[in-house]
Each structure stands twice: as structure tokens, then as C-alpha cells.
Amino acid sequence: METLVQTDQARPVFGNGLKANKLKATKFGGKLVSEYWESVFRAKEEGKKVVWYNGTYIPPFFHSHDLVWVHGEAWSAMLAARHKEIGAQGRSDQRGYDRELCSYARTHIGQMLIELDKVKSGHHAMAADDPRVETMLKLPAPDMIVNAYPYCSSGQQWDDITYRTFGKKIPMFTIQIPLLWGGRPDAGYMQGEEWEERSRYVAEQLFALTKFLEENTGRKYDYDRLGETMSFVKKAAELRLEAMDMCTVHPSPASFFDWIVSIAPVNFLPGDQNLVTYFEGVKAEIAERVKTGEGAVPKERHRLFFDGMMNWNKVGWLADKFAQVDACVVAGRYTHMSFWQEPQLIDLKDPILGMAQNYLICPNNHGAPIMIGEIEKVCDKFDIDGVVCHASRTCRGMTNAQFQIAGSAKKYGRQAMFFEGDVADESFYKDELLNVRLEAMVEAMDAKKRAA
User: Which Pfam families is this protein grouped with (predicted)?
Assistant: First the structure.
């Protein structure tokens, strides 16, 4: 009988010094993110109103109305990626919020409490003990709160906590993005009566959002400027999808982790020429790699799909981890099925309906059969060998369907594995567990290829 591992060379060796070959063009994104947060920190000094929002990618509405916005998830992810989240999470723990609560929310709520402590006392005692708190003290308080969550129920509660913590005095607007159940006979991806109804329903709320912004600023909303803003977003989205399509080649010139660090430009950064410039650079580098045969993983043998939210504490760590077993994570649900995936729907002369439709097709917002069908299309397109499910401990919205996703992967001859971690709380990640499961998965994929 053939054993799973025929030679020592076939066995994955972690810590072997191999590194992911990251795109150089993504460094420009880090500069844009830093500049964005610096502009947020200056907002009050410059006399600008600040919106705190959570959920889908609605900043074009704020940008077009000369507002400054704070995306709660982006703030928490940034703190976690820079290992500055512990102070905020500690303050949230002191307040009594359970560690099983969404760690995005828990981090942001903790930061908010630190901010209020600062206002009350002029400083916070933790700052002396934890210099990482200093960055969090710069975040300006909200003048408005907007919630726009597809699927996730924690998001509404998160913003309600913010509203109550600020004394129920901050104007709040909630956009309901309903689930696309897909149960009607004519239902499908972007088709059917339900799709049409839901599209109009969300578009009406987005129009109402502009009225809310007018009422709380005393200024008329400029719909022409919204179209101009969306022209940059749409072009950036098109470039991004074109660059992603180039990764069907072997070896893949970019990985899931390159797309992870490229989320900010299509999620919350200002809609201007910088977005287009960023993805022009990414696409150009990928095109050059395709020409020369340069891969994101130096010795690509296996191609994987990553399901689940990103563990922001471990982005570089995980990129190198998979490279060490010659596995390229080529695509993922979070990167390849979200964020302006259907830019052709956006009419720049009247963009609101197309924007609403892009918000609706967040992958979590589909019934499981349609969502899993779309995942399989991505896996087929990128020639995926296995599915890695990051069971994010505090993100139920992303993990609810993962057993079905893993079952579908196995049905179509792909390997599947789970590992636990979290979006922003590093304590839930166990490196030894990932090592064991990833090694077993790679051995199984090796055995299958030898048998074939």
C-alpha cells in the first residue's frame, strides 16, 4: 500500500525559511491608508463633521458630501494588523463585554470608551502602561452614525451600543440590506423577482441617506459629485477584477494575501485618482509576473481557496506559512466575492441603484445554495485543489455556512480543512493546530496527485 508520504522531501516543513513573494505595488496602499487615518485625526481641527459607520462600502456617499468617515471594522483591523489592539480590547473587557463578542466590535467599543475616559479626565491611566493606546486617543468622536450591514446582526447592536454610549444624542441612520433567500423559482445570482425587489428597496434607503446627510449638515447633496466619485471607484474595481483574472495562470502571480492588503482601496478609502493609480500598479506588476513566470509562492505545487475573514494579526505570518508548504492561496470568499464585484451595474449618471445591487451581493447575503454555487465557480476558475476554512471565533456571520462549503469542496474532489483564529483577537489563534491540519491536507493533496 502506498503511504501518504513517500519521502522526507514531500513532507511539509514549517520554518524552512521560505517566504511569500509579495507584490511590491501594494506598498502604495499602506501609504494611502496612513494618509487617510491622518486626515481623520485632523477632522475636528479642520471643522469637518465626522460619520462613524459600520457595514458595507458606503464611503462614496460621505466623500461626495465633504464628510470625514470612520469605518469601525477598518479601524479595528488596522489596530490588529499593527498589533495595537490590546489596549482597546482590555478596556472593553473592563466594561464587561464578553470575549465571544465580535472582536471588531469589541475593539472599536473599547477604543470609544478610552476616548470618553480621555474626555472626562484629560488623560487615561492605561496610556502610561501601554503606549499603543496613544494612537487610539486621536480618533474623533462622531457627529453622525450610519449602519449599513448586510447579513450580520452584530453590526446593528454594535452601532446601538455606540449610540447609547454617547448619550443617545448622536443622529443615527440605519440601512437595512435584506438577505437574498433565493427560494423563489426564478431566483439566481443577480436575477429574479426577489433580486429586483431588494435592489429597489435598498436604493430607496440610500436616497434617504442623502436626505439624512443634508439634514445634519445643512447642505444640499451633490449627486453629480457622487457620480464623479463613483467613476474612480468603478474604474478601480474594473482594474482589480482584470488583475485577479490574470491569476488563473500557474504559478499564480499574486495570492489571497496580496488581495487582502488591497481591500482598503475598494472598501473605505476616498474615491479619487489614487484608487485607480493603485490598481494600475497592481495590475502592471501582475502582468509582468505572468510574462516572466514569477509566482507569489516560489515553488507552487497546490492552489487553495481561503474561506472566512482574515486574521489581521497574522497576515504576513500566514502568507509565509502557506508558502513554506508550496501552497498558494489564490482566491477567497472575502477577497474575490465582495467589494464592487459587479462594477458594470453602476450607471455613473445615476449610480445609486447599481451601488445598492453591489451591496446586496455581499457573499454572506445569499442563501447557501447560491453562495456555495458561486464559490465553486471561483474554485473552478482558479483551478483550486483545496479549501481552507478560517473558523473565525467571533465572526459567526462568516462561519455559519462553512461546514456546507467544506462538504461541497469534498463533493467536487477538493480537500478541505478548518483552523481556528479570529479577525482581531490574536489569542484565539493556535499555530500548532494550523500546522498539523495544513500538513495533513498537503499530504492528502500530494497523494491524490501521485495517484492521478
Answer: HGD-D
